Amino acid sequence: MKAPRFSAAGAATKGMRCLLPKALRSRLAQWPERVLFGLLCLGSVTLLAAQASDLLSNFLALPVKVVKAGGKVALRGSFRSPWDEQLIVTQATAGCSCSEATVTPMTIAPGARVDCNVTFNSDGKLPGRYEIVVAVLDSMGGYRDLPVRFSVDVIPAD
Questions:
Q1: Sequence ranges of the domains in the chain
Q2: Residue 105 falls in which region: left (phi positive, over 0), alpha (psi -120 to 50) or beta
Q3: Would you call 72 helix, strand, or coil by DSSP?
Q4: pLDDT tens digits for 76-135?
Q5: Cα-Cα-Cα-Cα dihedral of 37, 38, 41, 45, to 10°?
Q6: Would you say the pTM of this structure is higher than 0.70?
Q7: Architecture of the domain spanning 60-155
Q8: Rounded-to-integer distance, Cα 6 and Cα 11, Å
Q9: Cis peptide bond N-terminal to 105, omega within 30
Q10: Which secondary-structure segment (H or E) carries 58?
């Protein structure tokens, strides 16, 4: 005698009002739970990947600067404030210890033009590309990433 097949879709629809058509419910009730779970995971991963690409596309990518290993380079970016409320900046910090960031003005109104300056020190860095994102600490104690990303290519010193 075969063991009965149980399904999450079938169990979820028993005794409950379901918005799915009866034909689809009966079809889903026959699917093994592993298949349904796999489809759910696949959908979740797809959603996360789409959200991650949206996050990356929200950054304004500036032209790549080149610096020889051991040197410093000044980076400057400008953008419009994406926030709906006024933001009082108490501190600006770059994504790595090799960079220093400043943001002006320190009180940012919605839609206002914001200037961001970063100094990147390549001393002790291996050749390659470095991405720098700047975050600000607001007066409420929350960190916010600025919508600008700096890129630096470190090349070997002669």
A1: 8-57, 60-155
A2: beta
A3: strand
A4: 988 888 888 898 998 888 888 889 998 887 889 998 998 999 999 999 889 999 988 888
A5: -170
A6: no
A7: Sandwich (2.60)
A8: 7
A9: yes
A10: none
